[in-house]
Amino acid sequence: AALPKATVLDLSCNNLISLPSDFCSLMHLVKLDLSKNRLQQLPLDFGRLVNLQHLDLLNNRLVTLPVSFAQLKNLKWLDLKDNPLDPVLAKVAGDCLDEKQCKQAAVKVLQHMKAIQSEQDRQRQRKLQAEREMEKKREAEQRAKEAQERELRKREKAEEKERRRREYDAQKAAKQEMEKKTKKENVQTRKPASSSRPPQPPRHKRSWSRSVLRVLLFVLLCVLCTLAACKLTELQHQPLCVSVNTLYEDMLAALQNHKTLQNLLQQNSQQ
Prior knowledge:
Elements: E1 8-10, E2 31-33, E3 54-56, E4 77-79, H1 87-93, H2 99-190, H3 193-196, H4 200-232, H5 239-254, H6 259-270
Parallel strand pairs: 1-2, 2-3, 3-4
């Protein structure tokens, strides 16, 4: 990083385990030799070295390359021998035993890393698409939930309004009924006493007349029974019967002038 405009850099045989974080700021590098170190990985932003054409990574401990490696579009020469590479990457890189093979390794590894980058981009896109769809689904569910809550509140409001209306109607009906009852009582109270009392005397009069008639009939029946007993039984010689018979005969004598009664009495005498 102390030579930001350096174009050639040889760091071979330094037992490097990793590169510093600002190493990739050396974007003017054209040739880089990192062979015979102990590098286990390259910086994730290694692809910033876009001017790099020659890269020697011989005899390190690399297993994979960063995806940004695909951005080294000017890379013409690459040596990855003697690294514990991933089998697929090792097959793509080849042996690099001569200049031609190293150039082919650069082309093939770039193509391979571009394919990996494209696949990761597609996976990222699919993930983003899935996240967007999930977000849309959550938004749709949230909207549906809010709509349902609004509908529920609307229904509850309508039910509350209907309940209040019924209560009002019931109170109004009760008030009207009370007013009718009060009005009826007032009308009845205003009627003169004579208008309600006259019917009562006739009832009492009729009841008294029936009672008197019953008493008279009872007395007449008693008189007839007494008369019959005094006339037809052995009691006719008793003092009471004598008086009754005398009274009866006096009454007959008084009624002799009435022909109709005379005929009736003659029939009764014959009986």
